Every structure is written in structure tokens, then in C-alpha cells.
Amino acid sequence: MKAFVVEKYGKDGARAAEVPEPTVGDRDVLVKVSAASINPLDKMVRNGEFKQLLKYKLPFVLGHDMAGVVTRVGSAVRGFDVGDEVYARPRDLRIGGFAEFIAIDMDDVAPKPASLSLEEAAAVPLVALAAWQILVDRAHVRPGHKVLIHAGAGGLGSTVVQLAKHLGATVATTTNSRTEQLVRSLGADVDYTKEDFSKVLSGYDLVLDSLGGANLEKSLTVLKPGGLAISVVGPPDAGFAKQLGAPSFMGLIMKTLSRKIRKQAKALGVRYEFLFMRANGSQLRELGALYDSGKLRPVIDSTFPFDQTLEAMAHVEQGRTKAGKVVVSMVPDND
What we know:
Number of helices: 12
Strand content: 25-35%
Shape: globular
Structural class: alpha/beta
Order of helices and strands: EEEHEEEEEHHEHEHEHEHEHHHEHEHE
Largest sheet: 7 strands, mixed
């Protein structure tokens, strides 16, 4: 089958290749991929940023999001049949959405939301799971909470804005003038395109940071005492190493990397955590119901044909997306 694989770590390390179809274990669902989508995590994994923690065996197929049709099920699989339309963010070390077929553990798969096309569904899993794990699992957002979401028009930000609003939060976001109307339509109550958010906001329960650096440091200052800043770009903390089952010395390294920002947070009486989302089919089922009820909707920037997967990655890396996700489609002659 045709796939896009990481042959070596680095910017030029991915290429198109012919690889064997994946083997199907007892708990696996084999899916013919209809569409996949690009995430910043694809670049990070391709570049080897997590190679000490995620020990992929080169070459490996890239791609963290997909939607498609079940073509075979393992002997222990229950709840999925050949012909079912599904979507998934496969677990780490079993990624591979940039391929014609992928075998996925049944616990990571969910039925595709009926209201979404396969291309729309492919844009959803990673960002929707990250949004759920940030807002529901970590921050326990409920009505009356105040949430600041950076880059509210991005693939992750646009999803978190919608879910936070659904959970009853007051939502502020940072964006630019081109996407101001979009973030408002998604549910943002306040948006900051020119003003410095840190000079006008205060008393927030949660900040989601996807930019890092000085932006993360400023974000700490808008939190109320005990408030939480969650970053998806780092620095990583000891909980990340624990989540991946890494040796204890890696936990100490992660703790050291995040020492500065944790110290700043403590001085302000607030908290800092790093989030690396995890695969979860049952959460995707819950999220699917929210898409089907109209509470959430995918935001798609553009669609590339599968043959142009590397060009689609470059489009994202070069910052050419205006809003939302970039999708790659298996449909022939897709514009």
C-alpha cells in the first residue's frame, strides 16, 4: 500500500513509500483510510522531538488522525463490523493515518459522527480529544468558569472554544482580525486582536496555551488564585513522562525542563501543567454525539489530495492556514 513514512528524523525525513499492509491483531480494526488530517504533532514526531520517550522503529507511517471504513476485524473485536464508518486518533507507537490502510486497537476507534462527512470527521479526533481532556478531565470546567484560549481560530483552539462554551464557561480568546468573526461565531465572548490580553484580563480559572514562551508566562498573570494554565507545547512536566511509562530519570528531566514556569506559577499562587493528549475511543463516542447535536462543528482550512500529504504538512508548518485543520483526502481528483 502507499503511505507516507518517516525514514529518518528531521525536516526532510518523510517521504512517500510502498509498505506492506498492516497486520491485524485480535483486538484490531483494519480501516481503509478515506481521509486524514495534519497536526503540529506530526511535525514534532517527524523531527524526533519525542524520540527519547516515543521509541518508534524507523521507518514508520506518520499521521495521528483519520476516518475511514472498516474492512476487517480481529477475532476479539466487538461493536464494529466490516463496512462501518469510523474515526480515530490511534494511540502512540501505532499511528499511521497517512496510508491507505491502518490497523487500530478497538479501544481507540469510534463510529464516525453521522452528521459529518469522512473528510470532516478526519479533522476531529486529536483536537476534540485534547479539548475534552483539557476542559473535562483536567480543568473540570463548569458553568460560571472563565477560560482564556489562545489561538482560538486554530485547529485546537477552535474546538476548545466551542466545547468550553458548551460547558457553560465564559470564553476569551486571542486571534487576528481575519478570524475575529469566526471565533465569535464559535462562541467566544471576548476576543483580543490588538490589545494585550494580560493587561485587561484577570480572575480566570483556566488558560490554554498553544504558543509557549513569553505568551505562557504572561498567561499565568490572568489566572485567579489556584487557577490552572495548561500548555500543549511545553515545557513538558514529570506527569508527561509518567503518562508514557518512561523511566524515572526521564521524569526528573521533564521536571527540570518545566522548573522555571512551575516556579513562576507557584509565586503567583497558580498552577501549571503540560498536556499530551491520549487516544480514547469512548471519549470520541461522547464527542461524536456533540457533533451530531450541533454543539460542535469542525473548522477546515483546506483539503489536499492524498498524494500531496507532504505539501499539506508544509502548508501547516509554514503558517499558511487561516483557520482550523488541513485535511488530506483519498477521494480521487479532490480539489
